[in-house]
Amino acid sequence: MRRRSHRFRSRVLTPYLMLAPGILLFAVFMAAPILYTLYLSFQRVEVSGLGLGSGARKQVFAGLDNYAAALSDPEFAASVGRVLLYGLILIPCMLGLALLFALLLDSRRSRATTFSRVSIFLPYAVPAVISSLLWGFLYLPSVSPFYYVTERLGLDMPQILSSGLIMFGIANIALWGGVGFNMIVIYTSLKAVPNDIYEAARLDGATETQIALRIKIPIVMPSLIMTALFSIVATLQVFAEPTTLRPLTNTLSTSWTPLMKVYRDAFTRDDIYSAAASSIVIAAATLLISFVFLRVVQKRAFGQED
Amino acid sequence: MRSILRVGAMATVAATALLTAGCSSPAADEPTAEGPVELSFWAWAPNIEKVVELWNEENPDIQVTVSKQDGGDPAVTKLLTAINAGSGAPDLMQAEYQKIPTLVASDALADISEGAGDLEDKFPEGVWSSVTLGGDALYAVPQDSGPMMFYYREDVFKELGLEVPTTWEEYADVARAVHASDPKRYLGTFSANDAGWFAGMAQQAGTSWWSIDGDSWGVDIDSEATEKVASYWGGLVEEGAIDNKPMYTPEWNAGLNDGSQVGWLSAVWAPGVLSGNAAETAGLWKAAPMPQWEGEEATGNWGGSSTAVTSQSEHVEAATEFATWLNTDPEAVQALADVANVFPAATEEAEAALTTAPEFFSNQPDFYDVAADVAETVSPFTYGPNVNVAFSAYNDEFAKAADAKTESAFVDALKAMQEITVSDLKDNGFNVK
Asked: Domain of A269: which CATH number?
């Protein structure tokens, strides 16, 4: 009897005990806020009369109203469109540059690789708000050294903060901050490739470029996919850069990206209910896009190994 | 596996229950103070804690602790969160005038009309109406006000032989002359970032964006008077006589400093901003009354704040006593003017306290005489319960208009602002006229 209770304790309870911290943290910091957001998204405020004084506003069940409002809001659709375009500009540039830098650093003829690696990576350590402020200064003609120099040279530089170029200006900030991280991920997986594969290729007469294209890129494909996935998620959630640049220009609205709209609804308009509904929509879309992306791409990348 | 899920689900349910319970517990309301009453005060005016120290020395029974805030907007966001949560709000709160209806609508402020006594005569009419919302209740004691004035670079005006504009027509002529003298130079800018600035302009033109009629709200943002203001500025931006970039950017600061911004339509607190942002131009600026539309001399109000007692305070009486002292006691008002650098709202006390011009305006010894005369001409203006919505609509719509640079876009922006504000009120169930 005693033995059995001891066995019960060690075989059944111990695993739960070990899992408890994880489950608890997940419940308190992930599940509960998500459930609460879900709950809020089905509520709204109902005001009576002038809405002044106590008891003039109460929270009522809203059904799917907040979702209908979010999905039919032209501003929300426009912000999604902008983010997609932003992603189309940013992600290929970022992954292309990250791959190029990783291959260059890995190439046999590279010198000062440690220094280069650190200096390419360093911008990643700068918080997005700070880097946006830095670039914001560089984009404002009258305080920017770039504009100062080009003006002295008699060149007419385009206004980056104008409506036509602002998208590139913001993508540039994200690119500057993100290339280093993605490069490190790809570079690390390049370093894990055994040297004899390259030697075999060289014996067969392959050039450095051929090795890069035929061997290195296929080998790092899984990490390319992972960085692409991270970049897609980060793109859908872009917030800090446009929010920081917004006070500097007339071309960024308070709902320029979906998350900016959520922030505006919740904290400027004090309407946490529709903000909650928009957040749920964004989270669901992010999940869906990530899932579809992995489904489409994974087979190709990992299929060969089977 | 199944049982893991069950444990997880139970923990989740428990956590949610805890969360929602925390959100709905009502604030206790019983004063049980033994020993000194402790009051907390959220404020952002510079050095306000030094003014509060004076109170704490004289009133050992009521001790006030200042908790410094980042500014008007973040403080209101924090307060509303605390009100929604049912706890965590301070006893006292520095509240901007345009935020008061929003705070009252969220039941965040206590009615202090009983404890405050007769204060009405101490303040200008325009200011008093914004803390009473035109009713019998009193939601805050006015602290400082921001009557709008016109600031200009005296040296540049002399160099170009320009007269100080007294009407908006003259202002437009001066703007053209300034820009013609140097394509990089502007008399001012139309800023789509500063809704309070534009509201002040509309106020000067004699309109009020909101009104209370019985138990419904009126919204009149696209009134004839405001449309006149919008198309005036749209016209100046369209012809290029006025800049269209926002204020408070590094570029604008540089412009104030290097003389490419020759004037600024601002408020009485401008010396503080100018001395911080354009230190090199000390002694070169002068203040004048605003250019006028036809009719009686008038100005608007940009900024200014009050001291409110929150609905979660357990010591409303003591807090009211402090708020009254802070804004009407001669010693306190003097300290507000001297160390917190605000323009106190209490008329007589302010006059007594403000005798020497700010250091940045040492070239204009009668600075505060000009300001006092201007302060008496502030037109009445009512803010509504969704100023936040109207102001963020201003940011978006007028940013588009300023970017488009056409007069018609400015008028369209105003119409859009009206539409967004009205439909927000209606969607929330307010009675709208």
From this structure: 1.10.3720.10
pLDDT tens for each residue of B267-323: 999 998 898 889 899 999 999 999 999 888 999 999 899 999 999 999 999 999 999
Instruction: Report which of B56, B164, B101, B127 is spatially closest to residue B350, judged by C-alpha positions.
Output: B127
Separation of alpha carbons B246 and B248, rounded Å: 7
Can you tell me the ipTM of this complex?
A: 0.85
Rounded to 10 deg, the angle between the B407-427 and B224-239 helix axes is 140
Ordered domains of chain B (ranges, CATH): 33-146+304-364 (3.40.190.10), 147-301+379-427 (3.40.190.10)
Interface test with B, best of A30, A38, A50, A132 (most B CBs within 10 A): A50
Contacting B residues, span 215-274, partner chain A, CB-CB under 8 Å: 215-217, 244-246, 248-251, 254-255, 260
On whether any CB of chain B is under 8 Å from the CB of A148, the answer is no
Residues of chain A with pLDDT under 70: 1-5, 54, 300-306
Percentage helix, strand, coil, to 5, in chain A? 75, 5, 20
pLDDT in tens, B209-230: 998 888 899 999 999 999 999 9
Domain span at residue A96 reads 73-303
* Assigned domain for A203 exists: yes
